[in-house]
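Bug #2210: token dump truncated for Lysosomal dipeptide transporter MFSD1?
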Amino acid sequence: MNSVTLGNLTAMNYYAYALMQIPVGILVDRIGVRKINFCGLLVTAAGSILFGLAHTLEAAYLSRFLVGIGSSVIIVSIFKIQATWFPLSRFSALSGLTSFFGNFGSLLALYPLTFLSLTFGWRNVFYWMAGISLLLALLVLWGVRDARTEIYSPPRETAAAGSTGPTGSVSPLSRKHSQTPEHTSTAVKPLPFLAYLKESLSCVLKNPRTWPNVLILFAFTGSSTTLLGLWGIPLMTQLYSLDKATAAGYVTFATFGFILGAPLISLWVRLLKGIRPALLAGTGLNLLLWIYIVIIAGGRPAAELWPAFFFIFGLLIMTHILAFSNVTAVNPLNYSGMATAITNMAEFIGSSLASLTIGLILDFSGNPSAAWWVILSMAALGFMAALLMKEQPAS
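Reproduced locally. Full output below:
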């Protein structure tokens, strides 16, 4: 399997994930996260089983596509629950906590997953992952609720004044959000599907304050997904003749940065007095790091520096979660699912394009260090997007 084929196989998950984001945003806003997550986890389980059974490249492509479809519902649903159940002032802290657990899972997917694959076979590992997905689907069905009104009934005056949730129920917190200028709600009654689709897309896409967040996910986060999810280990082995275990150990330091950085997001925002300054600092320091690696060190700094580079990279990249806080704040609450879905989609478009570009560079240039220019270019674009960000909705 050459670099382009490997890149395409990995990118199938990203393609499906990106294609599903707008449908997921619609479904989350209108149907609710409980049913959508249950169905998504069932599809994820089916994709994992198919990948374990795959003996052809076509079957592997299809299984990866199914896993992408199934997993595409998760993060948008989490942000919808946060926006519905909690005030916006808690959004960054909750997003950081979510990222902490997600990245802890990523840590488990490195050495522990490699050990299990070598010990029991990679096919069996995917069967087990399918079983875990099915268990999670049942837990979602049992424990997740779309709105507080599914647990208790609000006072009559609150119900009368509040905005509707995804199933037509009224959330007291939605009412609270709708009364604040930072988070206005534009509709009380659920719109017909086509009218909702047109209005939500128009509202989010025509809002100029949406787009800096989209570009941050496309460039800043897309480059990290590419590097850490696919090309980090191969580039380390090609540039420095490291064995795969050592290269994987270097890349693991980024996950340590994720885990440390995620709980500190809220503190970072308070210290720098706002989401925009925090993102400017994160994207700006990331750009400086890659300028040193690519230009000053000529794309080949000392190998011993890479654990520190990966750790700093992981620490800084966690500031991307603030883009979700911002895009939620500058768009109406009833379209928060659509806003976060469009923003999240950008990461996977960016990572897919970067993965393919790096694969082409490695296959045709014969110079592994040239791949770093892709990461540097995306780091620059992420910083410029943060410069354009606004923290308040347009009047």
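Output looks complete on our side. Residues 152-188 have pLDDT under 50 and may be disordered. Marking as cannot-reproduce; reopen if the truncation happens again.
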